[in-house]
Amino acid sequence: MPAEPTEVQVRPGVEADLAALTDIYNHYVQSTPITFDTVAFTPEERRPWLLSHPEDGPHRLKVAVAADSQAILGYATSSAFRAKPAYGTSVEVTVYLAPDAGGRGVGTLLYKALFEALAEEGLHRAYAGIAQPNEASVRLHERFGFRHLGTYREVGRKFGRYWDVAWYEKDL
Fold first, then answer.
1. Is the pLDDT of residue 1 over 90?
2. pTM
3. Phi, psi dihedrals of residue 145, rounded to the nearest 5°
4. 151 phi/psi in degrees, rounded to 5
């Protein structure tokens, strides 16, 4: 496990973070199959997403910032797993890092803060869908106790090819 960087702080996401968070997400939209969105967003288009993650409750947004510059290094979220009411005790979680922030323990810090925040929310399960291949994400999720449930084969098409998504589950 990478050493936890002491120069990183994790805090709730706020509206002032919107442009930087959108830039991070758009990197993955435009350059990777990690998200199946295919068209970049403007910050205004991402505002409803940001506002759907309040500071309390089961749907959270945690942001990692460099302590010296306050540059945003990445974020983690818990979101509704599915829209129907019976899914209310389950969340889908994800982490996105700035392109130059990988391998520094930032994802670990973000998930640690997110799961600590969710501990008192009465949730039962967390799920994560990981587009394949993505060994770094698989390792991060397994480090936090996620177990592989199965893989949707060729479920998404992006960049002229089909991609698999492996699904992981964690008891909360």
1. no
2. 0.93
3. 90, 10
4. -130, 130
Residue type, 143: R
Query: Structure tokens of 24?
Result: 């991070």
Phi, psi of 72 (to 5 degrees): -80, 125
* 162: number of Cβ within 10 Å: 12
Q: pLDDT tens for residues 19-78?
A: 999 999 999 999 999 999 999 999 999 999 999 999 899 999 999 999 988 899 999 999
158-167 tens-digit pLDDT: 999 999 999 9
Q: Is the peptide bond before 133 cis (omega within 30 degrees of 0)?
A: yes
User: The tokens 């947004």 sit on which residue?
Assistant: 61
Are 104 and 5 a contacting pair, CB within 8 Å?
Answer: yes
Token couple for 61: 């947004």
Q: Say how many CA atoms lie within 13 Å of 65 toward its Cβ.
A: 17
* Cα–Cα distance measured from residue 170 to residue 52, given in angstroms and rounded to the nearest whole number: 22
Residue 76 in 3-state DSSP?
A: strand
Strands 8-12, 90-97: pairing is: unpaired
Q: Is 8 helix (H, G, I), strand (E, B) or coil?
A: strand
Q: Are 64 and 8 in contact (CB under 8 A)?
A: yes
pLDDT at 112: 98
Distance between CA 59 and CA 83 in Å, rounded? 13
- The two three-digit tokens of residue 85, written as one number: 């009411």
